[in-house]
Amino acid sequence: DPDAADATEIRASARLALVHAGQRAGALAASAEALRYYEQALALAEDAELHERAGRAAHLAARLPTAREHYDRAIALCESEDDARGAARLRSKIGAVLWLEDMTPQAFDALHRAVDVLSSEEDADLAFALEELSRFLTLAGRHDEAAPLIERSLELAEALDLTETFAMGLLTRGILLNWRGRTREARLLTRHALEVALADDLNSVALRAFNNLIIDYALLGDVRGGQDVAERMLELATRVGDRQQELRARISLSWGFYYLGDWERAEAEAHSSTELHTSALAPMRLARGEVALAREELEKEIAGRPEGWEEQTQVRAFAAAYDADILLAEGKAAKALARAEESLVDAMTLGLHYFSGVIDTAAAAAGQLGNEAKLLQILGLVEAMPPGHRTPEMTWVDALVRARLAALRTGDADADFREAERITRELGFPFFVARMLVERGEWLVSVGKYAEAEPLLEEAEELLKPLRATVWLDRIERARAGAGAAVA
């Protein structure tokens, strides 16, 4: 009876029981279940603290719009009670949710407002807000704005003994240094942040550190090492119920399996992603001739993004890079080259060492167009890199661009093709080995060395058939047909 004398007490007891159930579910890594309990409790009576808990649970469950709604309501409740600092603290929490939703302008608005209000006191809330703002400024490529905020956050975190914020700041500083080409220094910071996080059970920080280390292993050409880290990341994310980071770990695993030649497992992990162009499914589609589907998926994804998403440097650069790959597969070499060059504009911010694949695409397009001047320009870009910034993949691209340039000039491209092949073998990337064998075989056919070409094409065929890489298998048949026609 809602009008009974003890109705209020019963509702309060029921609400408390639901909150406790939510806490237990969260402790058992059941984030979606925790959210359900919290929302049931909120239906009985709402307050800012419980909306914040619901927002956090929704974030962990990868239900970002729901997380945003709860944080927004918590902010509104704080403001209705004239709790400006409480509202600001919550804005520092909602920033990450908005960023993940690609609502970049809104994320920066929330974080700037949080820092403005919280700057009245140098406390833990301010240190956290500064760290979050500096992190997303860094990821947006706004390094000059981010750098002083990182330092201010780290100073506060160390002075106030804020272990979690300190470790987060180390990770953000590591990203900034990595993008500036100081990868070894960045690696030290990231590894130390991981040590701190694991020692203090700071799960969200450890997951961030794992993610950054996977990228570091990839740059070093050690995909197997990266896979080990991705497995650890997946285990931790699953154990603590962080669905968002679980998806990220699976995407990383998909890329690792792609490079190592296990495309069945790569495809299985890739399907966990809601952004297919960020997973290894994207290049597999193109290698298998599923070009129309790749185009449809990319355009659907881009159309669904909110206004302002292009402010995220990484997302913008790699969306342009994938678009260039699709254009090349569609036979639109000139447009592919232009789109790849658009992506390369962001290399000034992210670091050229992240763009070996884009340079490969640009060089392939330039080669198809017979554009010797552009190939020379691309080669100059690669060879101008300081030796300490060169990744194994970039060294491979360097050899490949030189081979394509020599082939275009009707010179002897064999040594450079051999070097590109050698590097891919050392890296242990079967698909890329096959690609080099096909390109070298095609060149040998073009200069009349048919007998030398056939063993290369046979080995490539053996590598490509299990991958169902029909585009490259078709190139083998065309090369053989060309050789046969010439002999006949």
Model description:
This protein has 488 residues and is an all-alpha fold. Helix content is 79%, strand content 0%. It is built from 26 helices and no strands. Helix 11 (203-220) runs parallel beside helix 13 (243-260). The longest helix is centred in the first third of the chain and has 21 residues, at 7-27. It is elongated, with a radius of gyration of 26 Å. The N and C termini lie far apart (96 Å). The mean pLDDT is 92.
Share of residues in strands: under 5%
The CA-CA distance between the termini, in Å, is: 96 Å
Overall outline: elongated
Q: List SSEs in N-to-C order.
A: HHHHHHHHHHHHHHHHHHHHHHHHHH
Rounded mean pLDDT score = 92
What summary fits the major beta sheet? none
- The tally of beta strands, per DSSP, is 0
The level of helicity is over 70%
